[in-house]
Amino acid sequence: MSNHTSFTNLNVVCLAGGVGGAKLADGLARILPPQNLTIVVNTGDDFQHLGLTICPDLDTVMYTLGQVANQETGWGRSGESWRTITAAVELGGADWFRLGDLDIATHLVRTQLLQEGQSLTAVTRHLCHHFHIQPAVLPMSDQPAPTHIESDGVIYPFQTWFVKERWQPPIHKIHLPEDVRATPQVTARLEKADLIIIAPSNPFVSIDPILNAYPIRPIIEDLPRAVVAVSPIIGGQAVKGPAAKMMEEMGMAVSATAVADYYGDLIDGFVYDAQDAGLLEGSDLASLCVDTIMRTPADRARLAQDVLDFALELT
Ligand code: GDP
Question: What is the set of domains in the chain, with CATH numbers?
């Protein structure tokens, strides 16, 4: 396998949530010409807070690609200060969702443009332009498409479960809304994609909401192209967040194999971590076993290159 493959004419669409999605998207952006890369982002986590429209996964992808992401927290912007949220909490505002001063600027501009009637796709394009991001970053849908988590008879809006409840209430069911439509921009990019990469994002609350936006899943299922997923589960654990806990609570094995099985016929190839070496040996599914932990920008680019080389072999 060459490390110098030319990807100039390859149209790549990456499906992404926040943390794992943003890191692989950044790796792809370091390799592919910007016009050949589209990142379709989950908006099931979006919500309103203190009057602002907040899109956590879009923000993580934008801040990461814009090279302004906060490396310590894993969310929000670098060089943050917290004066506004501190003052808001002193005035009786909710204290469970932290918003930095710089981050609030994003939400102010987004909220205003949405209120003026622009679509989330157009607003995201505007914000990306100002963050000097060249690849297309597309929300999966322009409609609100909130994910809800059911636990012990309580149905939580996603951020309430994830942040306020620190993802502790056990999951009994994940509710994705019906009748969510993908945007025409997303369907157009998918239809001319040569490769589709499912980032190492949470399969249940980051990737499933994207697939649920019609007709994303049928397009991916029907058209002849390579679909490759990267495992967010390494050594039986999530690198970050609730994916492993969710799998346990949903009665699944917690392993990269279980993630591959979950994607099933949707994928043609699967990338999993060197720590799990041998796990997919003997499986009918084409697989690549490499180091998938992305600690540095160089790690992101290396994994992106490995995934692209592997996916090209499948086409
Ligand atoms: P969220 O929407 O902010 O939760 O972000 P994602 O769904 O995109 O990412 C969460 C998933 O990313 C978790 O299940 C993690 O295990 C996975 N993840 C985070 N960093 C890495 C990494 O460096 N490598 C791999 N393979 N997975 C990662």
Answer: 5-314 (3.40.50.10680)
